[in-house]
Design goal:
Shape: globular
Mean pLDDT: 95
Number of strands: 12
CATH superfamily of the largest domain: NAD(P)-binding Rossmann-like Domain
Low-confidence stretches: none
Helix content: 40-55%
Largest sheet: 7 strands, parallel
CATH architecture of the largest domain: 3-Layer(aba) Sandwich
Number of domains: 2
Radius of gyration: 20 Å
Number of helices: 11
């Protein structure tokens, strides 16, 4: 039985904890809210507090960094989290697995691979790249053992209103209305299923040390939001449709909302093909994406059930 420390109790941290607990591992989860997760030992801690994280990581095999500060806070929030995680890994000997994204890849002309040089085009990509480079440098010095798992935009049951393929996408479609999306809904985009993200994180943690010192991509599916809307209609018998928010409107929202300003800055990811090639993860880690038909059907069923519960509550008032 192994012991792990997970920093962050959001959707990915929760899915990861569930996966590790299910196989009998000891799981500690640290978050600012102290969110309790079934089978895990939960505690209140700031991921940027190096002494606290180091103490929680004592005797742990792995530290997973699954925190996700709000976009407008990234410049201030991420550097101390990277530093604290690195210090904890150095002082305890625990291996470090960083949950990452694709922002450092910037604008791409083909499917992304882990061999691509970083080309971040906006601040969030540069922040994430700088964080990974600091951990990679510590790894190369022999101070720590670190790896990064990069996912595209996630989807699955529970993905909330901030997810591109979350509640704000599925609820209107299931209600026969228009789902407004960022970018061009006809462009193929990589979507990472939340259980597959957790599976890839675990696979990296279980791998030998020669699998560290590098990033890994989560096996993901590529399809357009328009295609997904058609599948939702077929699965649920709904008549909703999807349309892209006009770029000028998106920029206007950014003038009054710091969060939307940051969303607009990464909207390039949805205006042209944005896909991944994760064959090295499949080959070397033995992970596979959940079949699309199963993942989307499970997701649609979850949002349909959520809509039905909301309807019953409304009727009961």
């Amino acid at each position: 039985m192994r012991t792990h420390l997970i920093l962050g109790a959001g959707l990915i941290g929760t899915a990861l904890a569930d996966t590790l607990v299910a196989r009998g591992d000891t799981v500690r989860v640290a978050s600012r809210s102290g969110t309790r997760l079934p089978g895990a030992h939960s505690t209140i801690a700031d991921a940027a507090d190096a002494p606290a994280i180091t103490e929680l990581a004592r005797d742990a095999d792995t530290i997973f960094v699954c925190t996700n500060p709000p976009y407008p806070d990234w410049a201030d929030a991420w550097p101390p989290v990277f530093a604290a995680a690195s210090a904890a890994a150095r002082d305890t000997g625990a291996r470090l697995v960083l949950m990452g994204n694709l922002y450092a890849h910037g604008r791409v002309s083909g499917s992304m691979t882990t061999q691509d040089p970083p080309r971040p085009v906006e601040s969030k990509g540069r922040i994430r790249q700088a964080g990974w480079e600091s951990l990679k440098a510590a790894h190369d010095r022999g101070d720590i053992r670190a790896a990064e798992v990069r996912a595209s935009d996630y989807f699955g049951p529970g993905a909330g209103p901030t997810a591109h393929l979350g509640r704000r996408f599925f609820a209107p479609l299931l209600g026969g209305k228009t789902a407004w999306c960022v970018g061009d809904p006809t462009q193929p985009h990589a979507w990472s299923y939340i259980p597959d993200i957790a599976t890839t994180l675990v696979a990296v943690a279980d791998a030998t040390d020669d699998h560290f010192g590098r990033p890994w991509l989560v096996p993901s599916h590529a399809c357009s939001q328009q295609e997904i809307a058609r599948e939702v209609s077929a699965l649920a018998g709904a008549t909703g449709r999807v349309r892209g928010v006009p770029p000028i409107a998106l920029r206007g929202l950014g003038l009054v909302s710091p969060q939307m300003r940051e969303v607009e800055r990464v909207s390039y990811q949805f205006n042209s093909p944005f896909t991944v090639d994760a064959r090295d993860s499949e080959r070397d880690l033995g992970v596979r994406a959940t079949p699309w038909a199963s993942a989307i059907a499970t997701t649609v069923a979850a949002y349909a059930a959520e809509a039905a519960r909301g309807s019953r509550r409304s009727e009961g008032r």
